[in-house]
Structure formats: structure tokens, C-alpha cells
């Protein structure tokens, strides 16, 4: 109770399986007394491109544009575009970040990747020696909740799904100092029976009930590549 949760959601259709997973999370966490904020990226028409439009006012070096340097400088002088500042505020306040999305090409959809690219600015999320366990977003948890087209069996044959999680969980969240909870994966909602779909939705509700008792994973290479 009293915890703040930010759900960053990337699906176009509220009636989708991802939409149902989102709805469950909002309802269950609200019921627990958490305050829940949703960034519905498609509905917001969130800009995924990292461009100079993200800097308000003068550039640090207008001769040759360097996105990382310019956003870092802009962050320090309070000159980041409004949509970024708003997302950063939500991240800052959150105890838990949930990312809800369908797997696209073994990765997150572009609109969500764009959120990562643009929101997690140097000076805000990390700094020169402030990375991984020293990252700037301390005392926060993250959880990647996603759906796939492929079945669980296919993923077991193709290779452990943990390989896909390395860039997202370790490369982004851990890099910024955010702890990582076990991912939540719903395999092939399009290809299973209605009963199985209901079962997967119930499992998500059940997991959320005891979420705050969970320990973060040991986000080291061994977890991913052992
Ligand atoms: P939906 O189609 O919305 O939902 C599935 C079914 O659940 C629907 O029949 C829906 O009506 C039903 N449903 C919704 N809510 C409920 C409810 N409350 N109760 C019961 N039923 C409900 N897959 C991979 O595995 N690997 C990839 O690399 C990959 N790359 C992709 C790249 C692209 C560009 C695209 C478009 C897809 C890719 N996919 C991939 C497939 C994709 O991951 C799946 O299509 C997606 O995860 C399915 O989730 P959804 O929410 O869109 O499903
Ligand atoms: Zn890690």
C-alpha cells in the first residue's frame, strides 16, 4: 500500500491481450492501495525519435549534433522538451516501473524503445561513474511484462528467452540502477484456447497480489547466459 507504480504500455488496441493485462495491473494494484500511473504510448502519440527537437532553446554545440551530449546539457539547464520532463517526473516518483508490450522482433516495440532512448537521459538516469549498481535511479524496481507470438516450446528450442532480456533488463534498467523483478511472459495468446488465455490472465492477477514480497533477480551475466 502507498507504493507508486508507473506502467509504460505499448499496444494500440485496448481490447488486445496486452490491453487486458494492463487493465488487470491497474485494477489489482489500485485495489492494493498503490497509486498507478499509465503512460499509454500510442494513445499519447509518443514521439520515439531522438532528435534535436528534444532540446528547447540553444544547442551546446550547434556545429555538430550529438544527442547524448545535447540532452545531458539540456537536462542540466532544464531545457528538455516538455514530454520528456513529464515522463522523467513519473519515473522519479515511481517505486516500480512495469513495461507492458507485445514482443516485436525479439525486442520491445519501437515506440517503447523510443521512450527508453529519450527519457533515460544522462544526468537523470545515469552519469559518468553512476552506472549499474550506482545508477541514478536507485531504490526502484522494474518488471518487463510481455506477450509473444511464438509458443513456450518454440522459445525453449530456439534458445532461452533470457537472452532477449539481457539488453532490456541489464543494458537499460540495471545500467540506470533500477532493480529487476522476474519478467512476466504470456506465450502465444493468439494461439491458445480461451481457457488458457483466462488462466494466463488469472496468473498475472495472482502474481501481482504478492509482488511486493518478491526479491529482485541477480541481474548478472550468469542469470542470462549460464
Ligand atoms: P491479441 O491478438 O490482442 O490477443 C490474443 C487474443 O486474446 C485475441 O483473440 C483477443 O481477443 C484475446 N483476448 C484479449 N483480452 C482477453 C480477455 N480478457 N480474455 C480472453 N481473451 C482475451 N512474436 C514473437 O514471438 N517473436 C517476435 O520476434 C515477434 N515479432 C513481431 C514483430 C512484429 C512487427 C509484430 C507485429 C508481431 C511480432 N510478434 C512476435 C508477434 C507478437 O508478439 C504477438 O502478436 C503479440 O505478442 C500478441 O499479443 P496481443 O496483445 O497483440 O494479442
Ligand atoms: Zn544486470
Automatic annotation (TrEMBL):
> Where found in the cell?
Cytoplasm
Supply the Pfam families for this chain.
Flavodoxin_2
Which coarse location class applies to the principal site listed for this UniProt protein?
cytoplasm
Kindly list the cofactors needed.
Answer: Zn(2+); FAD
Name the EC number(s). Answer: 1.10.5.1
Molecular functions per Gene Ontology: dihydronicotinamide riboside quinone reductase activity; metal ion binding; NAD(P)H dehydrogenase (quinone) activity
Q: Which reaction(s) does the protein catalyse, per the Swiss-Prot or TrEMBL entry?
A: 1-(beta-D-ribofuranosyl)-1,4-dihydronicotinamide + a quinone + H(+) = beta-nicotinamide D-riboside + a quinol
Q: Provide this UniProt record's keywords sorted from A to Z.
A: Cytoplasm, FAD, Flavoprotein, Metal-binding, Oxidoreductase, Phosphoprotein, Zinc
What range(s) does the Flavodoxin-like fold domain occupy? 3-208
The answer on whether this UniProt entry bears the keyword rRNA-binding reads no
InterPro entries given in the database record? Flavodoxin_fold, Flavoprotein-like_sf, NAD(P)H_dehydrogenase_qn
Listed GO cellular component terms? cytosol
Assembly, per entry: Homodimer.
Could you tell me what this protein does?
A: The enzyme apparently serves as a quinone reductase in connection with conjugation reactions of hydroquinones involved in detoxification pathways as well as in biosynthetic processes such as the vitamin K-dependent gamma-carboxylation of glutamate residues in prothrombin synthesis.
> Into which family does the record put it?
Belongs to the NAD(P)H dehydrogenase (quinone) family.
According to UniProt, the name of this protein is Ribosyldihydronicotinamide dehydrogenase [quinone]
Amino acid at each position: 500500500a502507498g507504493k507508486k507504480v508507473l506502467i509504460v504500455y505499448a499496444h494500440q488496441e485496448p481490447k488486445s491481450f496486452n490491453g487486458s493485462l494492463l487493465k488487470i495491473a491497474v485494477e489489482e494494484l489500485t485495489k492494493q492501495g498503490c497509486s498507478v500511473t499509465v503512460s499509454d504510448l500510442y494513445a499519447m502519440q509518443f514521439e520515439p525519435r531522438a532528435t534535436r527537437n528534444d532540446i528547447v532553446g540553444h544547442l551546446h554545440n550547434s556545429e555538430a549534433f550529438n544527442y547524448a551530449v545535447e540532452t545531458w546539457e539540456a537536462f542540466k539547464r532544464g531545457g528538455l522538451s516538455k514530454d520528456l520532463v513529464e515522463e522523467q517526473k513519473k519515473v522519479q516518483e515511481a517505486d516500480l516501473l512495469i513495461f507492458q508490450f507485445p514482443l516485436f522482433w525479439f525486442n520491445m516495440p519501437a515506440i517503447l524503445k523510443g521512450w527508453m532512448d529519450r527519457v533515460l537521459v544522462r544526468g537523470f538516469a545515469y552519469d559518468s561513474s553512476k552506472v549499474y549498481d550506482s545508477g541514478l535511479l536507485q531504490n526502484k524496481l522494474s518488471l518487463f511484462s510481455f506477450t509473444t507470438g511464438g509458443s513456450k516450446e518454440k522459445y525453449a528450442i530456439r534458445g532461452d528467452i533470457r537472452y532477449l532480456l539481457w539488453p532490456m533488463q541489464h543494458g537499460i534498467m540495471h545500467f540506470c540502477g533500477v532493480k529487476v523483478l522476474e519478467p512476466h511472459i504470456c506465450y502465444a495468446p493468439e494461439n491458445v484456447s480461451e481457457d488458457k488465455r483466462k488462466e494466463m490472465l488469472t496468473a498475472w492477477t495472482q502474481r501481482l497480489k504478492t509482488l511486493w514480497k518478491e526479491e529482485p533477480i541477480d541481474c548478472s551475466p550468469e542469470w542470462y547466459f549460464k
